[in-house]
């Protein structure tokens, strides 16, 4: 993040903000209040699935605004039933709880895991979580997060987590050996904030099998990598497995806050009336946004687009940065579909402002990783433009003295 420039004496100073304000957008382009144009390779942090001002999404939301924005979960909400069915069909799971954000979806997942344990007589349930994981900023989800910077100043952390390294089955087995209190394994299929770190397909399959053998829930946080970003609806589907619990948010509403926890049969009946809830969760405006997002994704072939344009972008970055890859300045280009990370051999936070100056919106995570999570409508020409703007900035940064 860039250096903090408070924009107002009244807005709490929680983000180091870039010195621009965006006023409107169209597709993968946004304009600031001075009329400058930017190519949006950040998509509101993997949120703006169908881009800005989409010609089908906007009229649908306008229509919904004139009918109902919010009712409450005291009544049936027909659009919840539609969106739940769409998510169930695409995931192969069975039931959905709706909320509004990623951390809220993950809180629900953690509560499900604990109650799953209590229902089998485990009074102090423990959940396996990962190094470098990010699950949100509530007290429970920041405790599950594997980043000391997110946790600093907010102790005591919530107990009941066992932390293991990614992609290491032996370490997972060793850390849980003989422990009767383990109830779940909780992971991102591709870690986002932690630096775009994919779980290996074999590892996902092995953990699925281990969870089956030990009667643990497999909970896969697809808040960032889900909703078509990798070219399948959900990133874990590349491994041919199903989780028991899958939190979603970010891309699900194309910018309208929508969160969901999608569960399979083992977790479908854990919550009973009174166990969990959310005032905003599943409101008619949010549900309409989710339904229309999925409809547009299918009508416009956005899964296929994410897979193809993502592969093209990755290959183009590899070509343009071949010299830097050869000399070690670029350590790796990772990710799947339109969730890519360029891992550099040195911290690269300065690139965010330089990219803005050059008309491109990106982010940097885990200090050294340039993250690209553009809208899933990105074209090949726009992918070329990302490469043309970004790669010279990376090369120049790598040539500067430390
Ligand atoms: C962004 C993110 C969250 C938190 O989502 P919020 O909507 O900011 O609460 C949780 N998990 C993952 C994997 C994320 O990328």
TrEMBL record:
Repressor is among the record's keywords: no
Biological processes, Gene Ontology terms: L-arginine biosynthetic process
Positions that bind pyridoxal 5'-phosphate: 134, 221-224, 279
InterPro entries in the record: AcOrn/SuccOrn_fam, Aminotrans_3, Aminotrans_3_PPA_site, Class-III_PLP-dep_AT, PyrdxlP-dep_Trfase, PyrdxlP-dep_Trfase_major, PyrdxlP-dep_Trfase_small
Cofactor section: pyridoxal 5'-phosphate
Main subcellular location: cytoplasm
Gene Ontology terms: cellular component: cytoplasm
PROSITE patterns cross-referenced by the UniProt entry: AA_TRANSFER_CLASS_3
Subunit structure: Homodimer.
Miscellaneous information on this protein: May also have succinyldiaminopimelate aminotransferase activity, thus carrying out the corresponding step in lysine biosynthesis.
Similarity section: Belongs to the class-III pyridoxal-phosphate-dependent aminotransferase family. ArgD subfamily.
NCBIfam families: argD (TIGR00707), PRK01278.1 (NF002325)
Designated name of the protein: Acetylornithine aminotransferase
Gene: argD
């Amino acid at each position: 993040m860039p250096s903090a420039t408070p924009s107002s004496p009244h807005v709490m100073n929680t983000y180091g903000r870039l010195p621009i304000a965006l006023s409107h957008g169209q597709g993968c382009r946004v304009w600031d209040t001075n009329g400058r144009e930017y190519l949006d390779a950040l998509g509101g942090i993997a949120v703006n699935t169908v881009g800005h001002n989409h010609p089908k999404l906007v009229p649908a939301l306008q229509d919904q605004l004139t009918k109902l924005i919010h009712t409450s979960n005291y009544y049936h909400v027909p659009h919840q039933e539609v969106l739940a069915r769409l998510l169930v069909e695409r995931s192969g799971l069975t039931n959905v709880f709706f909320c509004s954000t990623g951390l809220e979806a993950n809180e629900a997942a953690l509560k499900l895991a604990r109650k799953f344990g209590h229902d089998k007589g485990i009074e102090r349930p423990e959940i396996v979580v990962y190094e470098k994981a990010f699950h949100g900023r509530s007290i429970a989800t920041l405790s599950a997060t594997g980043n000391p910077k997110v946790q600093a100043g907010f102790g005591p952390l919530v107990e009941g987590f066992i932390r293991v390294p990614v992609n290491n089955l032996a370490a997972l087995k060793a850390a849980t050996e003989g422990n009767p209190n383990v109830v779940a394994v909780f992971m991102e299929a591709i870690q986002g904030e932690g630096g775009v770190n994919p779980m290996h397909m074999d590892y996902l399959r092995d953990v699925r099998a281990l969870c089956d053998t030990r009667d643990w829930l497999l909970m896969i946080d697809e808040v960032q990598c889900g909703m078509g970003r990798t070219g399948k609806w959900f990133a874990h589907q590349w491994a041919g497995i199903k989780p028991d619990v899958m939190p979603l948010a970010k891309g699900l509403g194309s910018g309208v806050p929508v969160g969901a926890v999608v569960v399979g049969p083992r977790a479908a009946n854990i919550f009973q009336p009174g166990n969990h809830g959310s005032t905003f969760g599943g409101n008619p405006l949010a549900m309409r946004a989710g339904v229309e997002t999925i409809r547009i994704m299918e009508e416009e072939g956005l899964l296929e687009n994410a897979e193809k344009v993502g592969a093209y972008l990755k290959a183009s970055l590899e070509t343009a940065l071949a010299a830097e890859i050869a000399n070690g300045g670029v350590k790796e280009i990772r990710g799947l579909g339109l969730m890519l990370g360029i891992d550099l051999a040195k911290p690269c936070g300065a690139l965010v402002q330089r990219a803005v100056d050059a008309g491109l919106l990106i982010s940097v995570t885990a200090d050294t990783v340039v993250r690209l999570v553009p809208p899933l409508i990105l074209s090949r020409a726009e992918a070329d433009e990302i490469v043309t703007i970004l790669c010279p900035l990376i090369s120049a940064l790598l040539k500067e003295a430390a």
